[in-house]
Design brief:
The protein is mainly beta and 151 residues long. It has a domain of 87 residues. The chain is built from one helix and six strands, in the order ββββββα. It has a four-stranded antiparallel beta sheet, with no helix packed on it. The chain has a two-stranded antiparallel sheet with strand order 3-4. A hairpin with a 5-residue loop joins β3 and β4. The protein is globular and about 45 Å long.
Length: 151
């Protein structure tokens, strides 16, 4: 299982309701493109929202058409930290590539990735892989545990 997540944090804009901290997307065997035809109901099929941290709100996501006529996801945030995710069951092999593009209209002036209080990236890509945690290095096990605690 691979969970593909795209997240963003805390830029001025609109806010949305609270949601579960854990993604619950429908499992798929192929990455559903975010640039598919616009879904008037919200996100494209197989994509679900998730909270990055419990003390933040859910980002508002909507599918829209950009200036080049491509369907895109617009994220509007206000003191929020969330993302969209898709659970996949696909093989991962050497040389596999993930491609994407994004545009951030603004980055907070106070953003500083060196400090947790001001770590405020408008967009991030995160991948999670299923597997035997006992085979991870000690450093990877610590990162895994830290990620679990932050949720």
């Amino acid at each position: 299982m691979v969970i593909l997540g795209i997240g963003g944090c805390t830029l001025p804009g609109t806010s949305s309701k609270q949601a579960s901290a854990l993604p619950s997307p429908v499992q798929s065997d192929d990455i559903a493109p975010l640039s598919a035809a616009v879904n008037p109901e919200g996100l494209p099929p197989h994509w679900e929202t998730y909270l990055v941290t419990r003390n933040k709100r859910l980002t508002h996501y909507e599918q829209t058409i950009d200036s080049q006529g491509i369907a895109v996801i617009r994220a509007s945030v206000d003191k929020s930290a969330s993302g969209i995710a898709q659970t996949l069951d696909i093989p991962v092999y050497p040389g596999a590539k993930l491609t994407w593009r994004w545009r951030a209209d603004a980055i907070p002036a106070s953003a500083d990735i060196r400090t947790k209080a001001f770590d405020d990236a408008p967009v991030r890509i995160a991948l999670a892989f299923d597997g035997d945690p006992a085979k991870l290095t000690m450093q990877d096990q610590l990162h895994r545990e830290l990620a679990r605690m932050v949720r």
